[in-house]
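Researcher: Re-running this chain for the archive, since the previous output was lost when a drive failed. Same request as before.
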Amino acid sequence: MLATRYRNGNTSANEVTLVGLINDPACSKVILFGSPSAPTPDFSETDGLENNLPLMAALAKYSIPGIDDLYVVFDGMFLTAARQPRYLEVRQVLDVAENSGKVFFATSSVPFTSALSPSKAAELLLSHVPTIPLAPPSRAQYFSLLCGIPEAQYT
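Model: Regenerated structure tokens:
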């Protein structure tokens, strides 16, 4: 397995990058994740401040004929719905994702992975099943991993 980690920028740039990958025809699948809502032993300084939890993480898959699948890991202080301005970025990702047909999500929170190598992080994230398609009927289920209140009340 080939894996690389996206170098996080500011959250607006992170949002634009993930939306771009979702829209990229060369990207075959994106899986979204939610972190724990409190620090655990695998929480590290690259996960940011505790008041930003839970965090959104993602794994984008590119299939390269004749080579292998390449996974791009998005973790650490990537995106969060902890506050209104940050929620708007998450909402944009979810709006694009739910209509793409290629975005899935893990139905339970996953460990923090930013302290792991990209390959180890990708393996750990891929081991978290089940994943289900992100679609209008399942969006609320995924959002519940990122925020303690329903998205309809957040807006």
